[in-house]
Write a structure and sequence with these properties.
By secondary structure, the chain is of the alpha/beta class. It folds into three domains: 96 residues, Rossmann fold (3-Layer(aba) Sandwich); 70 residues; 159 residues, Heat Shock Protein 90. It contains eleven helices and ten strands. The strands form three sheets. It has a five-stranded mixed beta sheet with strand order 5-7-8-10-9. Bound molecules: adenosine-5'-triphosphate (ATP) and magnesium ion.
């Protein structure tokens, strides 16, 4: 609520607080802009006639800042000022209330615009979640589809036994279908699409299974991916999500490390009292100045032409998935050259006892 008259602020504050709104008073345009920088309000009630910075100028500043651009502004104006009503709308306000206020009218307008803003924000969030999810599903289908393509390629060239290749194609296609089923299923049930079900599970079988699924792709790169199972900790997590993350890390290692080199996936109980999995390669690693950006969406560190089908999403998605399982994912340089991407997950035994 912005007004240079303290008495107006007091009346409106009392009225809105009685209706359970939280009111932050400001006596000038400068003050409200400062408040808005600290915390984005659900609505601004703005007096138009103020010394120094008037309401119209405040509107312009609020609209110009992406954080406050869609905050509804209701302006307060004297009944005789028809001109400023039009001007207020032209500056982006959504409604106005004439002074002296009628309490019910002010409350009704505030309520309507706060609810509209909440509905809009919710829709925007849902749209964003769905867009994110579409990207994730598309991204996750790339690994099994690449395996299928390579198996078909080997079949055509008669390089390996047809039965082995058929089994490979079947496994990868099943993998694709189960992804799609699980997302469509959750979509149909309108469940929170990003929520993962957390259960206690053994880590080693997930690591081994994922490493095995890269047999063909590593062969194509003349590389070897091996599992180094030091321990088999029981963690709290989601097997599908852990598998996605490992697939992203292993496919990166295969992509960015040189042909003929080795990739090691290690599974152990870390020093931190959490389970730790790391994927180590003998590639170029990541220069220190680029490490900060690695986990941001669409960040790629080399020219587009160098690597096919890369979108710069894998690490960002992986980090989000690990964080959702209360874990942590990070990068380190490998001794004697190469990259190590590691993640830790909470041990099942360490779960907080139920109250
Ligand atoms: N093991 C690695 N060694 C060196 N650089 C890496 C390694 N893993 C990732 N990077 C760098 O980090 C960038 C981001 O990786 P990320 O997996 O997020 O995207 P991407 O591999 O480019 O595309 P995709 O969306 O298909 O995974 C890569 O483009 C690459 O430059
Ligand atoms: Mg990647």
């Amino acid at each position: 609520m912005v007004d240079d008259q303290t008495s107006n602020i007091e009346v409106v504050t009392a009225l809105l607080e009685r209706a359970n709104y939280e009111v932050v008073p400001a006596l000038s345009g400068e003050e409200v802009l400062e408040h808005c920088l600290r915390r984005t309000p659900s609505l601004v009630l703005l007096d138009m006639r103020m010394p120094v910075m008037d309401g119209f100028e405040v509107c312009e500043h609020l609209r110009a800042n992406p954080r406050t651009a869609d905050v509804p502004i209701i302006f307060l104006t004297a009944a005789r000022e028809r001109e400023s009503v039009i001007q207020g709308f032209q500056h982006g306000a959504v409604d106005y209330v004439t002074k002296p206020f009628v309490a019910e009218e002010l409350l009704a307008r505030v309520k309507t615009h706060v609810e509209l803003k909440r509905a809009r924000d919710h829709l925007a969030l849902v749209a964003q979640e769905r867009a994110d999810l579409t990207q994730i599903v598309a991204h996750d289908l790339k690994n099994p589809l690449s395996s299928i393509l390579f198996a078909v390629d080997l079949l055509e060239r008669g390089k390996d036994s047809p039965e082995k290749m058929a089994a490979e194609v079947r496994e990868s296609a099943k993998h694709c279908l189960s992804f799609i089923d699980s997302y469509l299923g959750r979509w149909a049930k309108s469940q929170d699409l990003r929520k993962v079900e957390i259960t206690p599970l053994r880590l080693a079988p997930v690591v081994r299974g994922t490493v095995d699924s890269f047999a063909l792709l590593s062969q194509e790169r003349e590389m070897k991916v091996s599992a180094d199972i030091v321990e088999d900790p029981e963690v709290l997590g989601n097997a599908t999500a852990i598998r996605h993350v490992l697939e992203n890390l292993i496919s990166n290692a295969l992509r960015y490390a040189p042909r003929g080199s080795e990739v090691t996936v290690r599974c152990e109980t870390g020093r931190s009292g959490m389970a730790r999995v790391s994927v180590a390669d003998r590639g170029p690693g990541v220069p220190r100045e680029r490490q900060q950006q690695l986990f941001k969406r669409y960040v790629r560190l080399q020219a587009d032409s160098e690597v096919q089908h890369a979108s710069g999403l894998g690490l960002a998605i992986s980090k989000e998935e690990i964080t959702r399982m209360s874990g942590h994912l990070w990068y380190e340089d490998r001794e004697n050259g190469g990259a190590v991407f590691s993640f830790v997950l909470p041990l099942a035994g360490k779960a907080a006892p139920r109250p």
